[in-house]
Specification:
Elements: H1 2-5, H2 12-19, H3 21-24, E1 29-31, E2 37-39, E3 50-51, H4 52-61, E4 68-72, H5 73-94, E5 100-105, H6 112-122, E6 128-131, H7 134-143, E7 150-153, H8 159-170, E8 174-179, H9 184-195, E9 200-204, H10 229-241, E10 248-252, H11 262-281, E11 288-290, H12 314-332, E12 338-341, H13 345-348, E13 352-362, H14 381-391, H15 398-417, H16 423-444, H17 456-461, E14 463-467, H18 471-474, H19 476-480, E15 487-489, E16 499-504, E17 513-514, E18 517-518, E19 523-524, E20 527-529, E21 539-542, H20 549-552, E22 563-569, E23 575-581, H21 586-592, H22 597-613, H23 619-634
Parallel strand pairs: 4-22, 5-6, 5-12, 6-7, 7-8, 8-9, 9-10, 10-11, 11-12, 14-16
Antiparallel strand pairs: 1-2, 2-3, 4-13, 13-14, 13-21, 15-21, 16-17, 16-20, 18-19, 22-23
Helix pairs in contact: 5-6, 5-12, 7-8, 8-9, 11-12, 14-15, 14-16, 15-16, 22-23
Bound molecules: pyridoxal-5'-phosphate.
């Protein structure tokens, strides 16, 4: 950052650039002049903003502790509107004759209030739901009220699943069975006959097109689900023999989630359109083409085909897929089908933010060159060598000095192990070592292209900021597949962030950390943060966590669900806490793993009573200790101040 070097005042604009907020926020988040992150609930270029620190203040007044998962309901509405508006614009400008029917895949965020909000707000667009299991189907039927909306059943289906879907059809739902495995058809036909309901049948095609990215193994010929072309033709033949081709209405495929490259998306639509045309030619009723999920989120704001980004925007996605369908079907003289997409990630990612406070920091105590004591001729060889390495260090020999420093530091350690160096002598060696490393870190910033080996130094020298959260519970994809999410302080952004840090959570697991952060070109190993101030909380936000993170999380170290708060923001900028779900208590979590809180108290009482008998504590102590235990069981699993 040239700014800090020239000692110009740091401004919020510098923070905006450093954290890339305008690139990844899709207009929903920004930084206010006083340095707070603000929510812009109605999307880009709208005037209403609400400050996240103001919301945190409201949470604290209500006694809700960090960490908190903050949901902004308006953003869900805005994202649904955006999706439908983009498809409407594309249909109008291209003259596309079919309708757009979006569905939300429940697995992306199964929380009742999320699915309910989508079903309710989405009604004006006939937005439906996609389900992959019996529990999801039951949840979907209970929340969906719109007979025009699609209810798409994917996943492996048993008899009970099929019966539930057929009952839904009888009650007026557009409930499609997507055949994922050839054997499902027979069961569907048998149950339909028994229950006297004509099913709505679709097939999932295994495409030969594949997509790049983290999550995209579900596409392509090697995907575990879907039918090959030959198997699809078998379905046609079976239905034709039963005079049921009018029930075959939908073709589905799913390339996988977070497809970063529009070319992959286009190639898949083209292939699917050919199959669709083939099915119409075979006499299937058809009418619906379901493109699955895959619409990506630009987590790092780079607008590239990097895994955490996408090289297209929503308008391009909509017009590209419609155009591809039209190109092929117009050529064959086939009516444009209704287009279904199952966008989950892009619909919900923006609307939740994980907020947590920093509990403490630690940094390496490297000291200054001036702290190094005088060395005399009796000083051990490796320590003298370290001193010479420091003395001779220049911009030209950074890599060599680095290698030497590591070598002599190891020698110091070896000699200590063999009893040749005292503890104090070893410390002198280590101190010189860290002065060298710090100096290399400073010098290397002057090089246009610092040697790759030296990049590890930044991480080693970084501070550790201890955040009051669990990666395993709240950001499982960060831990499991190294997904990047934007992280930044939600206040103090008018101040220069002078520290470089990695984040550690409060689990005792060394994997419970975040040490990769979004950067304009790829990622960076440390995050710029502010020094803590005495008596003042420092809050960070992890953004775009609305998709997949909530229910994949686990109970590592028995840290449970966080508090969840939903806000709704009015046109005049007033906000209301519309829902709050208290996070798990210690007793809740113990019960998940089959402890009985009542029995625990009983056991604790016995331990305390024994202590009374042995005269370690008084009966009055016992009373106070029991109160503390009871409080402890009721308390939050995270760090409480
Ligand atoms: C997971 C899944 C989706 C959601 O994909 P996103 O990329 O999150 O939009 C859609 N359809 C199917 C069949 C899925 O398995």
């Amino acid at each position: 950052m040239a700014k800090s070097v020239t000692l110009q005042r740091w401004s919020v604009e510098d923070s905006a650039e450093l954290y890339g907020i305008r690139n990844w926020s899709a207009g929903y988040f920004d930084i206010a002049p006083e340095g707070d992150v603000v929510i812009r609930p109605f999307g880009p270029n709208t005037p209403v903003t609400v400050s996240i620190p103001d919301i945190i203040k409201g949470l604290r007044e209500r006694g809700l502790d960090m960490p908190v998962l903050l949901r902004i309901e308006n953003i869900l509405d805005s994202q649904l509107s955006l999706l439908h508006d983009s498809f409407r614009k594309a249909r109008e400008s291209l003259g596309y004759k079919g309708e757009y029917r979006g569905v939300f895949p429940i697995k992306v965020n199964q929380q009742q209030q999320v699915v309910e909000a989508i079903a309710r707000y989405g009604q004006k667009y006939h937005h439906g739901l996609e389900v992959g299991s019996k529990p999801e189907l039951l949840a979907g039927i209970s929340l969906l009220r719109d007979p025009e909306a699609c209810l798409i059943c994917n996943g492996y289906k048993d008899e009970e699943f099929i019966d539930l879907g057929l009952h839904a059809v009888r009650m007026g739902y557009k409930c499609f069975f997507v055949i994922e495995m050839p054997s499902e058809l027979e069961l569907i036909l048998e149950r339909s006959k028994t229950l006297g309901v004509r099913p709505l049948i679709g097939v999932r095609a295994k495409l030969s097109s594949k997509a790049g990215g983290h999550w995209t193994d579900s596409g392509g010929e090697r995907s575990t689900f879907g039918l090959t072309a030959a198997q699809i033709v078998d379905v046609v033949d079976t239905l034709k023999n039963l005079d049921m081709l009018d029930c075959f209405k939908l073709l589905h495929y799913h390339l996988g989630s977070q497809v970063p490259n529009i070319r992959d998306i286009r190639a898949a639509v083209m292939e699917a359109s050919r199959i669709y045309a083939g099915l119409v030619a075979e006499g299937a009723a058809m009418g619906y083409l379901d493109l699955g999920g895959g619409l990506a989120v630009d987590y790092d704001g780079s607008r590239t085909n990097y895994v955490s980004s996408r090289n297209y925007n929503l308008d391009e996605y909509c017009s590209d897929v419609l155009e591809a369908v039209m190109t092929i079907l117009d050529e064959c003289g086939i009516d444009h089908p209704h287009i279904v997409t199952e966008s989950g990630r892009a619909t919900v990612a923006y609307y939740s933010v994980l907020l947590f406070n920093i509990l403490d920091t630690s940094s390496i105590e490297y000291g200054e060159a001036s702290d190094i004591p005088e060395l005399d001729h009796e000083t051990a060889e490796p320590i003298l060598n370290l001193r010479d390495t420091l003395k001779n260090l220049t911009l030209r020999n950074l890599q060599e000095s680095y290698n030497d420093a590591l070598y002599y530091r190891d020698e110091v350690r070896q000699q200590f192990l063999h009893g040749k160096l005292s503890l104090r002598e070893r410390t002198v060696g280590e101190r010189i070592f860290w002065v060298i490393i710090k100096k290399i870190a400073q010098e290397k910033t002057k090089l246009p292209q610092p040697p790759k080996d030296l990049s590890a130094i930044d991480t080693v020298l970084a501070d550790i900021y201890y955040g009051n959260f669990s990666v395993f519970q709240s950001l499982p994809d960060s831990w499991a597949i190294g997904q990047l999410f934007p992280v930044l302080p939600v206040h103090r952004l008018a101040e220069s962030p002078t520290r470089r840090a990695i984040l550690s959570d409060i689990t005792c697991d060394s994997d419970g950390r975040i040490d990769r952060f979004i950067a304009p070109a790829g990622f960076k190993d440390t995050l710029e943060l502010h020094p803590l101030k005495d008596g003042e909380e420092y809050y960070l936000g992890v953004f775009l966590v609305g998709a997949y993170q909530e229910t994949l999380g686990d109970l590592h170290n028995l840290l449970g669900d966080t508090n969840v708060v939903s806000v709704r923001i009015e046109e005049n900028g007033a906000f209301e806490f519309v829902r709050e779900i208290r996070g798990d208590s210690v007793a809740d979590i113990l019960a998940y793993v089959e402890y009985e809180p009542r029995r625990i108290l009983e056991d604790l009482r016995q331990v305390a009573e024994n202590a009374v008998r042995e005269k370690r504590i008084s009966p009055a102590d016992r009373f106070r200790i029991m109160l503390a235990f009871e409080d402890g069981l009721r308390g939050y699993t995270y760090y409480e101040r």
